[in-house]
Design goal:
Elements: H1 14-20, H2 23-26, H3 30-46, H4 52-70, H5 83-95, H6 108-144, E1 149-154, E2 157-163, H7 164-189, E3 191-192, H8 208-215, E4 219-220, H9 224-229, H10 232-258, E5 266-267, H11 286-310, H12 323-346, E6 349-350, H13 352-360, H14 366-375, H15 380-397, H16 406-410, H17 420-423, H18 426-431, H19 441-457
Parallel strand pairs: 3-4
Antiparallel strand pairs: 1-2, 5-6
Helix pairs in contact: 3-4, 3-6, 3-8, 4-5, 6-7, 6-12, 6-19, 7-10, 7-19, 10-11, 10-12, 11-12, 14-15
The structure holds arginine.
Length: about 450
């Protein structure tokens, strides 16, 4: 008979057992569930709500079940529906009468909310560590390439020269925000819901603060309806995952472009690329493509759960059982992608020569030619037009700007002097952009220093 079978005259249809049971996926919460139950039983015993010796037996019994779960010795049953009732059923089988007192003052509704919160808190710690690994990798690449000049792009057209270091530190900033989003989400996940009961709390004098303390929560939930109906903490994790996956995808997109023969800025390590079954010459950036592709499923997880939640009246509704697979999938996908991404980026070979060559093409110094004229006294809008005309002339003559003679340049403005060749050189273009946040090596060095301080404080 089901743990809730008292009111029923007939067994559940096997089709329904199969349909509504969640044990196939929520068995992943076994450790969190048992840990929560140990804290609940401990408090029940301490508060004299159940006999101390029963509490003792329950705690011992639960510890035994946890050890067996971890050793893979437990077969969960579909009949027992979910992880909560599976654990309780096994406990009663093992320790008898005392086991029947565990669920005093508790509902599966506050229990599942608790398990989810413990899971999310652990997932946040783990994900932050992985983000940190990847950020450390980026900083070490940035340190090596402070002077590696490359083109910066807008509209995927060469725009202005920057350095590889500057580009990689832009990626760092994206990941740093992902990290901070998790720090922020943790505060709201760190709230203990037990004591909410099914929806209306309980008449037992539970010591909720004690349970929070035993489980390492900073606070207890302040409304029993919200305590069981809230899934924001999962949604926040999955939205942080979605935003971060979007970042990883953009990084991957750049690496895919850069590894094409058209760019050839990077060479992927053989260990992180794959071949073609038909075209012998191919070396494909599959890993980067797969990360880019997996963003879709994480967005799907977010949309799925947001949609499942949007029409639910307070408090618990069974729709909410749909939360777990979305959470697990987003967590698995995000963490796996972070690990593989780190491996891929660590083993990249950057083609400095090709990057530098590309930075010199495409008139990336046209803005600096205009700025040169501005420094000689011409208003910027006018200087922009002069530089534009120089570019048009160069496009037709198939020359770079600095390949023109001074005489040719003077045709466009007599403000041009011999010092333009120095002022609009590739190195000057980069080195003079030393505004904080800019690509000049000294500015990037400052951002690297700040990144290192951040990573140190995040240890
Ligand atoms: N398996 C359920 C879930 O995942 C646990 C809570 C069930 N509560 C209930 N009243 N049916 O959401």
């Amino acid at each position: 008979m089901k743990l809730w079978g008292g009111r029923f005259e007939k067994a559940t249809d096997s089709m329904v057992d199969d349909f509504h049971s969640s044990i196939t996926f929520d068995k992943r919460l076994a450790r969190q569930d048992i840990t929560g139950s140990i804290a609940h039983a401990t408090m029940l015993g301490e508060a004299g709500i159940i006999p101390a010796e029963d509490a003792q037996k329950i705690v011992e019994g639960l510890k035994g079940i946890l050890a067996d779960v971890e050793a893979g010795k437990i077969e969960f049953s579909l009949e027992a529906e979910d992880i909560h009732m599976n654990v309780e059923t096994i406990l009663i089988e093992r320790i008898g009468e005392a086991g029947k007192r565990l669920h005093t003052g508790r509902s599966r509704n506050d229990q599942v909310a608790l398990d989810g919160r413990i899971y999310v808190k652990e997932a946040i710690f783990q994900t932050k560590d992985l983000l940190k690994d990847l950020m450390n990798t980026l900083v070490s690449i940035a340190k090596e390439h402070l002077h590696t000049v490359m083109p910066g792009y807008t509209h995927l057209q060469r725009a202005q020269p920057i350095t590889l270091s500057h580009h990689v530190m832009a990626w760092f900033q994206m990941l740093k925000r992902d990290y901070e989003r998790l720090t922020d989400a943790y505060v709201r996940a760190d709230v203990m819901p037990l004591g909410s009961g099914a929806l209306a709390g309980t008449t037992y004098p539970l010591n909720r603060e004690r349970v929070a303390e035993l489980l390492g929560f900073r606070a207890i939930s302040e409304n029993s309806l919200d305590g069981v109906a809230d899934r924001d903490f999962m949604l926040e994790y999955i939205s942080a995952a979605s935003i971060s996956m979007m970042h990883l995808s953009r990084m991957c997109e750049e690496l895919i472009l850069w590894s094409s023969s058209e760019f050839h800025f990077v060479e992927m390590d053989d260990g992180f690329a794959t071949g073609s079954s038909i075209m012998p010459q191919k070396k494909n950036p599959d890993v980067a493509e797969l990360i880019r592709g997996k963003v879709g499923r994480v967005y799907g997880d977010l949309m799925g759960l947001l949609t499942a939640m949007k029409g639910l009246p307070l408090a618990y509704n069974k729709d909410m059982q749909e939360d777990k697979e979305a959470l697990f999938d987003a967590h698995d996908t995000w963490t796996k992608c972070l690990i593989v991404m780190d491996g891929m980026i660590k083993t990249l070979t950057f083609r400095k020569d090709v990057m530098e060559q590309a930075a010199g093409g495409g008139f990336t110094n046209a803005t600096d030619v205009a700025d040169y004229l501005v420094k000689k006294g011409m208003p910027f809008r006018e200087a922009h037009a002069v530089s534009g005309k120089v570019v048009l002339y160069c496009v037709k003559a198939e020359k770079a700007i600095l390949e023109l003679t001074l005489e040719e340049l003077k045709e466009f403005s007599d403000m041009f002097e011999a010092d333009v060749y120095e002022a609009a050189s590739l190195l000057a273009c980069v080195n003079l952009r030393k505004v904080p946040g800019g690509p000049a090596p000294e500015a990037v060095q400052a951002s690297i220093d700040s990144a290192e301080r951040f990573l140190k404080s995040a240890e």
